[in-house]
Amino acid sequence: MYRKILVALENSYADENLLLHVAELARHDQSQLVLLHVADGWAARCFDQLQLTESEEMKEDRRYLESTAEKLRATGLPVTARLALGNPPDEILKAVDLEQCDLIALGSHGHRYLADILYGSTIAEVRHKSIVPVLTIPAARKK
After folding, report:
1. Are the beta carbons of 39 and 84 closer than 8 angstroms?
2. How far apart are CA 122 and CA 33, in angstroms?
3. Residue 38 exposed, middle or buried by CB count within 10 Å (0-12, 13-18, 19+)
4. How many CB atoms lie within 10 A of CB 24?
5. Cα–Cα distance for residue pair 33/3, rounded to 1 Å
6. Domain range summary for the chain, segments of one domain joined by +
7. Which of 64, 65, 71 is CA-nearest to residue 35?
8. CB of 22 within 8 A of CB of 7?
């Protein structure tokens, strides 16, 4: 049913449950996976304008993406990985268009109300602006 699934990763514990579900769905539908992490720190947001070099955080994000992609490829799944820089909801939606994805998969922390105001809600913005279906998977409880 889904040809190409964009998987928005956080580089946090929330990714573990998301990846379990999405990998199974991709196997079932014989889908391609596009792993995306959006670096949104100061260096990432100002990277092009100020012609900065990659920060350690961005380098770590790239390593995480590649290692996660390799683990999924080792199970036989077709996977590409992309590191984007900037505002997560905007970059997720751009990547969906660029990669021609037909599903977005995101992990959910489960915080609400005040926490959404403090931490933002990427999911809310993505689901309101997306023209493709959005799958949200709750994060496993922190260990």
Report:
1. yes
2. 20
3. buried
4. 10
5. 9
6. 4-138
7. 65
8. yes
Nearest to 68 by CA among 20, 4, 108, 135: 20
Tokens of 66: 């590649």
Residue 103 tokens, joined: 């599903």
Residue 117 pLDDT greater than 50, yes or no: no
Q: What DSSP state is assigned to residue 142?
A: P
Name which CATH class applies to 4-138.
alpha beta
Could you tell me the pTM of the whole model?
0.85
Which tokens hold the place of 14?
A: 């929330």
Calculate mean pLDDT across residues 67-89.
Answer: 95
Pair of tokens at residue 123: 């999911």
For residue 62 the two structure tokens come to: 């790239």
In this structure, what token pair is assigned to residue 13?
């514990």
